[in-house]
Write a structure and sequence with these properties.
Number of strands: 34
Shape: globular
Radius of gyration: 21 Å
Oligomer: single chain
Number of domains: 3
Length: 435
């Protein structure tokens, strides 16, 4: 068994540690990779719920310990799938068309659940639907608009909560159940909207938002979102007003990055005021004080989560029960050990300001999907993995969502085929699942 070698270096004034060797694990051959693996068990998400083996940022852990994943079935429908970590069984929790009474096909279909699933204090799970893509020149259908939906795991009941904005999909839903408020972001035009849960009368409340913007609700009950100019918009429900603060780096510069590179992914800490932010096209982790006063708020750089070329992090940012911030970043594989890309898991410790690269995520049960059989059958959309020189199966193109469960288990979604990967290495107790 080989020893792990920790190489420490400083990024943005913070200590970063990379683990560059590995112990013996399943899947290794005679060759030794120059990095450690983080092993996960893969589960093929119900194939009848997708068309192109894909889903997006939509994943959460319910209060019952089960995992809920949104899927995309272009031109047809979308679904919320429930995964039970104990039985390892899956089932459909939401059939969007059935719940909302939708009948559209092609571009008119409710083809994606793309929202980051929001779990209310009641345990109810809030999601939204949006359009997919046109398939061919004959698809001239108009998209009617997306719906907000809620699923109650206790009652096993889903409800439609209306269409916030005709002809626009829903890219984010957050619920302040204490104040009976729903926050919604639309797409492809990013309107920031609000409604009372009791009457579902949606209205715009503030400036236009950045692409794929999400709402964080702080400890004071205020909603926060990133504007189109990459500033901080804060809605105070007591005053029914929005305040915008400029987001600046410590040297006074704007954090604005144009286009998809700047897409923000952020989470809020248990203190109800600290937000951690990671953008799609870079690997720098920032913290923001959502309760800061004044005309601007400082985005403090905490360091580089994963060092490498062409960083790409999707919805893979989460906080574990240990208080650590976990992230996955895809980088170009420049190690000489295989080609393509590597999806690296890292974590940040707020107490020590230390970043640790934990390793490349890898699949320990390579037989979870029969790639050769699918290829022989002419199946498309199965190109999302590659095999490294030691025989290890690892993601190639796209990771999407990541959540940390209450027991410390990490769950990651991967495209092509659409996969749920369960990482047990950081679990602190038995699987946390209730009936």
């Amino acid at each position: 068994m080989k020893k792990m070698i920790a190489v420490a270096f400083t990024v943005c004034g913070m200590l970063t540690v990379s683990i560059v060797a590995q112990t013996t694990e399943p899947g290794q051959g005679s060759k030794t990779p120059p990095f450690k693996y983080v092993w996960g068990k893969a589960y093929y998400i119900l194939p009848e719920t997708t068309s192109d083996e894909s889903g997006y940022f939509s994943m959460c852990e319910g209060l019952n310990g089960r995992i809920y994943v949104g899927t995309a079935k272009y031109c047809v429908n979308s679904y919320l799938v429930e995964f039970d970590p104990v039985s390892e069984k899956q089932r459909i929790a939401i059939d969007t068309h059935k719940v909302c009474g939708a009948t559209g096909t092609g571009y008119a279909a409710q083809a994606k659940i793309h929202t980051r699933n929001y779990v209310g204090t009641s345990g109810r799970i809030y999601v939204g639907s949006k359009q997919g893509y046109r398939r061919g020149t004959n698809d001239t259908a108009s998209y009617p608009g997306g719906y907000v939906m809620v699923y109650d795991p206790v009652k096993d009941e889903a409800k439609c909560l209306g269409m916030p904005y005709p002809e626009l999909g829903v890219i984010d839903v957050s619920a302040d159940e204490a104040r009976k408020l729903l926050y919604v972001t639309t797409c492809e035009t990013q309107n920031w909207m609000i409604a009372k849960i009791d009457d579902l009368k949606y209205r715009k409340i503030g400036p236009m938002l950045f692409g794929y913007a999400t709402t964080l609700i702080d400890g004071k009950g205020r909603g926060h979102a990133i504007t189109r100019e990459f500033n901080l918009a804060t809605y105070d429900p007591e005053k029914d007003e929005v305040k915008v603060q400029t987001i600046k780096s410590p040297d006074g510069k704007s954090l604005f990055l144009e286009g998809s590179a700047g897409i923000p992914n952020w989470i809020i800490a248990p203190d109800g005021r600290t937000a951690y932010l990671l953008r799609l096209g870079e690997a720098t982790l920032f913290s923001l004080d959502l309760q800061a006063e004044g005309e601007s708020v400082t985005a403090k750089p905490l360091g580089t989560m994963v060092a490498g070329e062409n960083p790409d992090s999707r919805g893979a940012l989460t906080m574990g029960p240990d208080g650590l911030v976990y992230a996955i970043v895809k980088i170009n594989n420049k190690t000489g050990f295989g080609t393509g890309s590597l999806h690296v898991l890292s974590r940040f410790d707020p107490k020590s300001s230390r970043i640790e690269e934990l390793g490349v995520i890898a699949v320990k049960n390579k037989d979870f999907f029969d790639f050769e059989k699918a290829k022989a059958a002419g199946k498309s959309w199965i190109h999302g993995y590659h095999t490294l020189p030691d025989g290890t199966l690892t993601p190639l193109h796209c990771h999407m969502a990541m959540v940390a469960a209450k027991d410390g288990t990490l769950y990651v979604t991967i495209l092509y085929p659409f996969t749920l990967l369960r990482i047990d290495a950081y679990r602190t107790e038995g699987l946390n699942v209730t009936k």
